[in-house]
Amino acid sequence: MLASALPILRENILYTVLSYVVIFESVFLMDFLFRGLEKMHIITIRFILMKVISTLLTFILIKNDSNILLIPILDILSSTIAIILVFFEMKKMNIGLRFSGMANVFNSIKNSFVYFLSNVASTSFNALSTIIIGIYVNATEVAYWSVCMQIIGTIQACYSPISDGIYPEMIRSKNIGIVKKALKIFLPVIGLGCVATIFLAKPVLLILGGEKYLPAVPILQLLIPNLFIGFLSIMFGWPTLGAIGKAKETTISTVTSIIVHIILLVALIIFNKFNLYTIAIVRCITEAVLFGMRYMYYRKYKNLFNSEEVK
């Protein structure tokens, strides 16, 4: 339905379908299982393997626009390899799949609805700007935005193993020192990375897209604050608030940031200020709102955490 409504998706329907296959495959990566078993190294190894395979093959095989279909195909290939390794690990642990009936399925959905809503809102948050841009601007600008968001998204994807790695320990210990230590270690690295990305935006886009994507340099630079603020948003989300049972508050912060995002985008359209530069600024503002709310909740419920020093 969405593909038929948006010209850019309709014109690239095969690419759209293949990209959806990658999303479908993610169901079988079993993150929830290994997170629950506290086998985070399996998730980390699988994630690194997927990205290395996909990235290397992309640099080797993608030469120009005519190779566009290879991008989702390579993602499908890397995801399939990761799924095979996941099921191999499950077999070693004598874990198999069993269908327990629709009643249990609906009961599980009911019990985890807050988590579901939060994840759906978060996913929508990342896709909303691209969809609206696809409606209001030309294909060239959509391409600029897409490549910038791919770069930002790829870097931010590296945050998930960090967040997933400390989440089980936070649930068990409620020790906020774990989060603080992670922030002390990774924030300086991310900060330096942000500064480096600002200065290296031009060569990065030149390598990834060629000279025709160089007009996207200032857009990428405007999106850089998302890399820093986004890490804070993630760390004060599920690893912090979720660990003390504040799933509702975590979800409220996500949904509120979505509403702010929509309001600001509509305002840009109404006042005829809708362009890639203002959208990038709105994206940063929205991320700041998300972090601000989560940090506010953290301060409110600070007494629910332990404060043991982490070596």
Low-confidence stretches: none
Could you tell me the mean pLDDT?
84
Main sheet properties: none
As for the number of domains, it is: 2
In helices, the fraction of residues equals over 70%
**Strand content bin:** under 5%
Report Rg.
Answer: 20 Å
Distance between the termini: 52 Å
From N to C, what is the helix and strand string? Answer: HHHHHHHHHHHHHHHH
Total of helices: 16
Class inferred from helices and paired strands: mainly alpha
Protein architecture, described:
The protein is mainly alpha-helical and 311 residues long. It has two domains: 1-98, no CATH class; 105-311, no CATH class. The protein has helices at 2-5, 7-11, 13-25, 31-36, 40-61, 70-92, 102-111, 113-136, 139-157, 159-173, 176-209, 217-223, 225-235, 237-241, 247-270, 276-300. Helix 3 runs parallel beside helix 6, helix 10 (159-173) runs antiparallel to helix 11 and helix 13 (225-235) packs parallel to helix 16 (276-300). It is globular and about 50 Å long. The model has no long low-confidence stretch (mean pLDDT 84).
Quick structural summary:
79% of the residues lie in helices and 0% in strands. By secondary structure, the protein is an all-alpha fold.
Sequence-ordered SSE layout with sheet pairings:
Layout: H1 2-5, H2 7-11, H3 13-25, H4 31-36, H5 40-61, H6 70-92, H7 102-111, H8 113-136, H9 139-157, H10 159-173, H11 176-209, H12 217-223, H13 225-235, H14 237-241, H15 247-270, H16 276-300
Helix pairs in contact: 3-6, 5-6, 8-15, 9-12, 10-11, 11-12, 11-13, 12-16, 13-16, 15-16
